[in-house]
Amino acid sequence: MSNTAELIATEQRLGAHNYKPLDVVLTRGQGVHVWDSEGKQYLDCLSAYSAVNQGHCHPRILAAMTEQASKLTLTSRAFRNDQLALLYEELAALTGSHKILPMNSGAEAVETAIKAVRKWGYETKGVPEGKAEIIVCSGNFHGRTLSIVSFSTDPDARGGFGPFTSGFRTVPFGDAEAFEAAINENTVGALIEPIQGEAGVIIPAAGYLRRVRELCTDNNVTLILDEIQTGLGRTGKLLAEEHEGIEADVTLIGKALSGGFYPVSAVLSNSEVLGVLQPGQHGSTFGGNPLACAIAREALKVLTEEKMVENSAVMGEYFLEGLKSIRSNIVKDVRGRGLMLAVELDPEAGGARQYCYALKDLGLLAKDTHVDTIRLAPPLVITREQVDWALDRIEKVLMQ
User: Fold this and answer.
1) 60-102: per-residue pLDDT in tens?
2) How far is residue 343 from each of residues 100, 104, 265, 352, 386, measured CA to CA in Å?
3) In a 10 Å sphere around its CB, with 0-12 CB exposed, 13-18 middle and 19+ buried, how is residue 66 labelled?
4) Matching Pfam families, A to Z (predicted)?
5) Angle CA(391)–CA(325)–CA(46) in degrees, nearest 5?
6) Among all residues, which ones are annotated catalytic?
């Protein structure tokens, strides 16, 4: 069997260098733990960017996947399958959605929402053809497709990929007045993350999303909340919008919708928005396939029946308090909601990546983002003892 150095060298030689992972080669996962090719155990504090909220290789989801994989995996949407309607029914009951459109990746869900909301704008709102605008926020991360990077404010995401898709207006995240000023007669939608994950777990002030919801309602603008990272228990509620007591017109979920077993995403909305799509106008060969649906159904059941959302709220609060109690002169800010947490370091600390490597050496895997921030997002099954274990290592590294 190839050793770690050989695997890393092969990856560097043959793979496109569009990622810069920490140099650990993982071979196995169970619950909150993963093991590398040398057999060393780690506590995973990234959860594949919140895709494995239910923990690695959850036995119930694995059983559902195995059972369905032995029966039927793919029909395309040319024919019906016996899992799709059941997923619709269970998702609708859980989230209150009236219409659902399944896709595969988070980026596909975002693209689907953009298309549907533009079409709604032309056919229902009466915006002149080709003039539809969607308001987005600076610091956003919604995926990597060409249309999505067209409205990114990250130079790495945009640089060298133009010409770009037009029709987006960018406002500062968390600024309701700027949002209000950006609305005009051609505004069909607003695409917002309730908490900006990739930007470093940026949480807007209380009341911001409520005000945005009011402005969208008053101006007949469709509010799209990208809950691909924040949704499905990550912030201590099923959906992060619940913290503000609002409902989006379109909600995007993915990642943990499959518990990390398979790419599954969904656009949750109403008949008014998704009703504009007619046969042949949008789709996906794999979207809504029976294997994906069976996995997603069990992933949702596990999340709710095993009280993972509630655990996220309790353990998240405990973890946050523990992080705030660390008295290190290199820590600039600590923030979080549920188990979506971040430690922002002082720029003079020399960047967060070296601290992530130091944590790796102590058996904890976390990832740096935006140079100075360590993001912490363990699976929602984490226990108090495991949080204490993590806090000991984080304190040790930050106090060195």
Assistant:
1) 999 999 999 999 999 999 999 999 999 999 999 999 999 999 9
2) 36, 31, 29, 9, 18
3) exposed
4) Aminotran_3
5) 35
6) 141, 226, 255
Q: What is the pLDDT of residue 400?
A: 86
Percent of the chain surpassing pLDDT 70:
100
User: Before 163, cis peptide (omega within 30)?
Assistant: yes
CA 368-139-53 angle, 5° bins: 55
Please compute, for residue 273, the number of CA atoms within 13 A of its CA located in the half-sphere on the CB side: 27
What is the reported pTM?
A: 0.97
Nearest to 193 by CA among 386, 340, 357, 389: 340
Kind of pairing, strands 133-137 and 41-44?
A: unpaired
Query: What distance in Å separates the CA atoms of residue 102 and residue 109, rounded to the nearest whole number?
Result: 8
- 227 burial class (0-12, 13-18, 19+ CB within 10 angstroms)? buried
Which pLDDT tens digit goes with each residue over 240-261? 999 999 999 999 999 999 999 9
- Unique residue bearing structure tokens 């996995």: 295
pLDDT at 123 over 90: yes
Confidence of residue 138 (pLDDT cuts 50, 70, 90): very high
- Measure the CA–CA gap between 269 and 64, rounded to whole angstroms: 27
CB under 8 Å to 220, separation ≥6 — which residues? 125
Tokens of 111: 């693209």
Pull the structure tokens for residue 83: 């899992």
